[in-house]
Amino acid sequence: MIRSMTAFTRQQQHTEWGQLTLEIRSVNHRYLEIGFRLPPALLPLEGALRDRLRKGLSRGKVDVTITLGIEGSTQGFPLDHDRLRQLNAALTAIQDEVDGVRAPDALAILNYPGIIRDVQPSEDHIAAAALTLFDKGLVDLISAREREGKRIDTMLTTRLDAIDDQVAHVRTLMPTIIERQQTLLKERIEAARAEIDEQRLAGEIALLVQKADVEEELDRLTSHVVEVRDQLKQSKPVGRRLDFLMQELNREANTLSSKSVVAETTKCAVELKVLIEQMREQVQNVE
């Protein structure tokens, strides 16, 4: 099953401390090119994120953007009541043991470490949430590339069927093509007989026969179509291989056109070029 290189995903994760937003965009590219836009807190994760992408994708220009929003507390001064009770018990014990010790005021208690809870998340918590969100987004991106790949597969298969039809049609024209070739050959022989010697004439005849024979081009077109169909069934990336096969198909279509001696063959060759070009455009997006 082929995969497209063009896809997009957007994921969000809400936590008690804020929100993470992930966007991954990928478009066609000859190789795998990755770019990141990360908040300062997540910059240390770039290497790990890059490794994850390389394991999931093999080609494409991929842009990853993660934004981080830390929400402030709506509770004013969130108190750690357990810590406050422990401090109160300790102060009471000190006053019982030491005469004349003055109890601290409320402001001093608020400044005591741990009394006001720290609502800011740790970097480890942010990193863990970001990795989880990224893995989810990468799975969704690959699924989108696979869905688009199915649409490309359908389009390519339809064009391959059409190419088979054109090749079959040219084969049915072979009697007409051969008859036309023989007529042209006779005309050229008569015209050349008076101008060149018999040995050279024999060479010219052999050259004309070889040039007019399109069976080899038809066989190669059929062979390339079979190979494209086989590549579409592969689980590994096949984009570069498909691109090469498009070039080979186009080469045979051009040769068929140059050898054409009847209008119908020329028409078929033009149709083949149109079909191959439509396929080539789609293949540029295949991973």
What would you say this structure looks like, in words?
Residues 171-287 form the Endoribonuclease YicC-like C-terminal domain. Keywords: Coiled coil, Endonuclease, Hydrolase, Nuclease. Residues 182-231 form a coiled coil. Residues 2-152 form the Endoribonuclease YicC-like N-terminal domain. There is one protein chain. With 287 residues, this protein is of the alpha+beta class. The protein has three domains: 7-73 and 122-144, 2-Layer Sandwich (Ribosomal Protein S5, domain 2), CATH 3.30.230; 76-118; 147-283, no CATH class. The chain has helices at 46-56, 81-97, 106-110, 123-172, 174-193, 198-212, 215-232, 239-259, 263-283; strands at residues 7-14, 18-27, 32-37, 60-70. A four-stranded mixed sheet has the order 1-2-4-3, covered by helices on one side. The longest helix is centred in the middle third of the chain and has 50 residues, at 123-172. The N and C termini lie close together (11 Å). 22% of the residues are buried.
